[in-house]
Structure prediction request, 434 residues.
Amino acid sequence: MTAKKIIEQTCGLYRVDLSSVKKIAAEFNGELDRALAGEKSSLQIIPSFLSAPSGQEKGRYIAVDFGGSNLRVMLVELRGQGCYEIIKLVSQPLKDPQGRYDYTTADTSGHEVFAFVADLVSEIWAEASSCKLGLTFSYPMLQNSICSARLLRWTKELKPRQTEGRDIGQMLSKALIDIGIDIKPAAIINDTVGVFMAGCYHDSAVCAGSICGTGYNNCLLEPGRMTASEQVMIVNTEAGNFSSLPFNYYDQILDQATDDPGQQKMEKMVSGKYLGELMRITLRDLGEKGYLPGYDRSERIWNQPYSLPTEVLSWLQSKRSEEIEQFAYWIEVNGFYTNQDGLAWLNLISAAILERAMILIAATYTAILERNRQLNNEKQVIAVDGALFKYMPGFLTGIESILRSELPDRSVALMYTSDGSNVGAAVAAAMTER
Ligand code: BGC
Prediction:
């Protein structure tokens, strides 16, 4: 078989037909219904105990963002009408690039990781000691109230020990008290809830929030069936765990090597943590079969998991000279001296991986928008954030155009909303003052 045929077949493994969007959306909604009914489901309906903000929330708040590779603490001033200012921001990576510390592994205890968070809060405390604190915590957690939540499990390959099942708010406030800071989080929210809050603070048409960065997830408005009231509440679905999706050969290889095989299936097919790795595994297989010009199995990139960052896919998709140069540099540093054919294969494979991600995400958004139809909104906006939306050329617009063709009778839009994890946490903390 010719190399071209093999590449076509490989790309075919990532093909999800646009005609299956409705079917996937129906399965997603079925899983949500099962979660609501308390039946077995790969999705969850985790109440946030928050409804949509009014946009008039005001005041200064401490926002802590614990969920990506960088830990961030901010002092945020909300000014109402969707306006805000970040007065101060301090940030530290959870894993030091120079290798001096790493809070992501099982060698770290929960106590140590929350002490690290508390130290960062202490850096802004002098200016913030009269402010309430909102915590964005972007891992599956079960909320009992707006300010108390238990960690269900880690995702995104994080694994500090002695944490699962424990109260996140208590772990943080204990670490703060240990260094003389007497404050408890007023609100604990998932990052998708944060992006919803920040988006809705600007535009009341926001009916859902979604992140596609290191991880993937979304939240939506659902009548508060888990409480006595019928109030509409924002709920976190943990959509990254959606499992009614066909895994191909490479998805299986990737999944088996993760910390949580069989879990976070959708996240492993669409998010920034995994897309680069999927591409690496696919290319390595082609190289081993002799179809990748310039492949040298002794190079580090083919032996070291996660050594092909998802950024590479965005450089490949970009037409900007700066990114094309970054890609050329990356190729050289990694000793991957391929030729024109090899570059063409890389382009085709990255496009196939990304297109699948966009179609799957669009299917889950279609499900949410169908579900929200009952809320009778004229215009429906999903607030989105995360590196894929920010940096991947054509990602946001591609998903939006699938949505528009799936729901032609509706006015739907995606709104890129940065600062969800900080403004959102501040707005949530402000809502506790009502
Ligand atoms: C987590 C979610 C989070 C998402 C985006 C997933 O791995 O389980 O809680 O919202 O990543 O950060």
Summary: The longest strand covers residues 70-80. Residues 67, 138-140, 155-156, 190-192, 211, 213, 215, 217, 238, 240, 267 surround beta-D-glucopyranose (CB under 6 Å). The mean pLDDT is 93. The radius of gyration is 22 Å.
